[in-house]
What does this fold into?
Amino acid sequence: MQDWQRSVIYQIYPKSFHSHAGNPTGDLLGVVAKLDYLHWLGVDCLWITPFLRSPQRDNGYDISDYYAIDPSYGTMADCELLIAEAGKRGIKLMLDIVVNHTSIEHEWFQQARSSLDNPYRDFYIWRDQPNNWESKFGGSAWEYEAQTGQYFLHLFDHTQADLNWDNPNVRAEVFKMMRFWRDKGVGGFRLDVINLISKPADFPEDNSDGRRFYTDGPNVHDYLQQMHREVFEGHDLINVGEMSSTSLEHCIRYSRPQSKELSMTFNFHHLKVDYPNLQKWIRADFDFLQLKRILSDWQTGMQAGGGWNALFWCNHDQPRVVSRFGHDGEHRVVSAKMLGTALHFLQGTPFVYQGEELGMTNPSFDHIDQYRDVETLNIHRLQRNAGVSDADNMAAIMQKSRDNGRTPMHWNAEPNAGFSVAEPWISVPANAAQINVASQLDDPDSVLHHYRQLIALRRSEALMSDGVYRQLLPEHLQIWAYVREGNGERLLVLNNFYGTACEVELPEQVISPAMTQRLLISNYPDNPPRTRQVFLRPFESLVLHLTDH
Ligand code: GLC
It folds into this structure.
């Protein structure tokens, strides 16, 4: 077992984490200022979303210079200080690398667009005629460039041009840049939409949006193996790939050690359970049975194939989990703890997204002027043009917008939640005065202390990392029950996902009076010993360590 298989990683969205300089947006020195907090929480590694130079059209996922820090985040010296200070606390820093595309302001694109025979022309993907592929942010994936009379491909915004990975010079430049950061001392990489880098040469189309042709494309494994040889080999790095619309088979190949590609993979299938017929922009309840089934299939599938999951409920592209799969009203605290427990006992490496450890909620912004995200603003316009009513349009955006997860971190009850002395770039949710780090630090029953306990448990309970996953009661409509087992020991993990109490009967082989029983964690204060007949209160969750005799 590798170190990172026993680690917990914390994700920082620096724009909304903390502003040391007192600006509307956060900065790297703001992260440095909070390292003691992160150390107290117990995390091993920080994934910081992109802070390299960028016009910020997609908040840094549109990089214009891979070797420079964006001035809004500070300087290279600040970055070096952050790496060093994190290192002193035993915390690694994972850099977010965006190489499916660059900003159109990148020097390579500026060169490429200038003429058909520019040496950088072939760094990007050009066609005389577009095919029917769609951008993930809505509309066509092709943009016309009048100066040279061709279209370039952009799977995301039209200011994010896709790189041509089939060009060996592109790969050489990317690997050189990654070695630069590796040698600066970063502890690993998070690779943005990395399974989209290889497009089929003939750009086929059918009646879909095109994703089936470029997802996990023809040469992607070769390119990642080359990256491994040229950047990772012989270095102690944690590398996680963000995999869009991927498959279990591919994720096993990306993450099993013998492939020599990546350490682990993110996938999003479990976060589409509130997309009816895969339609994101419709307000809908989530499908609990599907959530359990998908997570369980990935647990058993990855374990059987020797792959490794990156586990997460939240990130900067997702709504807050307590508002999504829990209850952000009267049951907020108990349901946020339940969701934390349900995720942290799975096989894989858990990621905690800033504010998740407080049970931060969606902000309930009900006016489009309160939103900043390029995807949200694009979709709002497209839906309105398509005749969707304002009420339906806003209802979907309030539930699904990526800005739900991008509001400033709640540090304390001071103005702007202690994020900055300046008015933040996006509003602070109204409940920041109640939900914040300062108040939860003082409260041993807080969501924050529960997360700290979960993180510490991963260090002491080996079964959390290497126990075999088995789902119990797969058809139960309200309880997600599973075990992690090995060597005559097991962790029994019981989670009530709803606000009503319920009783279930467990198999005798799982829990019986002959077994020794030890409570590892729970979200209710009183915990009698349990029998096969388990009664679970609203959103109750508990984990028992059981030993056979
Ligand atoms: C990833 C990022 C997202 C970004 C997109 C394009 O999905 O997480 O924030 O918009 O890639 O780079």
Summary: The first strand starts at residue 9 and ends at 12.
